Amino acid sequence: MKITVVNRHRSDIMGGSEVQCDFIASELVKRGHDVSYVAVKGKKKNYDVSYKVLPCKSEGSEILESIVKSRPDLVYWRYHKNFIYDIFKKLDELKIKIIFSVSSEYDTHRFLYNKKQSLYINFRKWLRNINQFRGIRYVDAVVVNNESHLNRLPVKRQQFIPNGMTDEYVSFKWKRPYCIWIANIKSIKRPELYIDLANQIKDVDFLMVGAIQEQKYNWVENDENLPDNLHYLGPKSLTEVNGMIRESLFHIHTCMAEGFPNVFIQAWIFGKASVSYGFDPSGYIEKENLGMCSNENSEQFYNDVKEMIQNEELRDKKGANAQLFANKMFRIETSVGYLVELADELLKTY
């Protein structure tokens, strides 16, 4: 089978969907499939991977040209709704099957709204999004990594396929017990909530990992602006983050609703519970007893973190539940197996 993956590449930007696409492409190659990866905004001349990489600009015509050049049987699209109307319409004419992967809450929305932007910009984005949303009609199947996102798009064939994760890690040591927060630093990740915790709770250290992606957060790089027990460590590789999580007390999450952030899976694989300010992906934290979700309540969030720090028995119990659940649910090989079955099914229909 010839499969073309479309997204940005993890070698250019370390994001959750980019990591997952690399996992998927690599596993497909192991299974004997011919895989090309259209790396939007690709910056490198050489990508040290097992599959073919076609870097291109973030322009509809260039993305389409790269896809057609790879001559796929099927396209696995994980680049949100960018340019999809014109591209998907053409792929449909060429009888190339399309799997649209939902990697964000916003991928399921017909409309866009951002109260922080001007009405004019909102209206332009709203019109553009409506136009692009029409491209969904050409999609052959939708896959989601968060069960709550099923059946939100007008496509008949939809399937839940969980993300996968590696348990490889780089060893890490720290002088004091610590909690850990991992995300690229920008408004929707709400890093202020984590920093507030460190100001209030001095029992342990609070480590913060991620690239600063909005200029207004540049102040985080200066230790003098942070509580004494909060340490910003900058961006780290996936295996470095795994090593940090492995030695932590537990994982803290403050981000707004997304798709299914990799950091939850990373924490759970290493037997670490999660305390989330408000987002419980697929409801797993509550249903499977993998930590605590504070339901957007700041006082509850403080109490949950404090209790998890002080109650080792509770922490260990929820961490053990998390590890059992992760080992059963989030295996790369199993997830790619589901994807291959779906692709085979689609390619049998014309």
Description of the molecule:
It is a single chain. The strands form three sheets. A seven-stranded parallel sheet has the order 3-2-1-4-5-6-7, sandwiched between helices. It is globular. Residues 113-121 have low confidence and may be disordered. The two termini are 16 Å apart. With 350 residues, the chain is of the alpha/beta class. Helix content is 37%, strand content 16%. It has two domains: 2-164 and 331-347, Glycogen Phosphorylase B (Rossmann fold); 178-329, 3-Layer(aba) Sandwich (Rossmann fold), CATH 3.40.50.2000. The chain has eleven helices and 13 strands.
Please describe the structure with a list of short key phrases separated by commas or semicolons:
350 residues; alpha/beta; Rossmann fold; 11 helices; 16% strand
Fraction of residues in helix: 25-40%
The structural class is alpha/beta
Could you name the CATH homologous superfamily of the largest domain? Glycogen Phosphorylase B
Order of helices and strands: EHEEHEHEHEEEHEEHEHEHEHHH
- Tell me what portion of residues adopts beta-strand conformation: 15-25%
Tally of distinct domains? 2
CATH class of the largest domain: Alpha Beta
- CATH-defined architecture of the largest domain: 3-Layer(aba) Sandwich
Q: Number of helix segments? A: 11
Brief characterization of the structure:
The chain is an alpha/beta fold.
Task: Describe the SSE topology.
Blueprint: E1 2-7, H1 16-30, E2 34-40, E3 52-56, H2 60-70, E4 74-77, H3 84-93, E5 97-102, H4 119-133, E6 141-144, E7 158-160, E8 178-182, H5 191-200, E9 205-209, E10 230-232, H6 238-246, E11 251-253, H7 262-269, E12 274-276, H8 284-287, E13 291-293, H9 298-310, H10 312-329, H11 332-347
Parallel strand pairs: 1-2, 1-4, 2-3, 4-5, 5-6, 6-7, 8-9, 9-10, 11-12, 12-13
Helix pairs in contact: 1-11, 2-3, 7-10
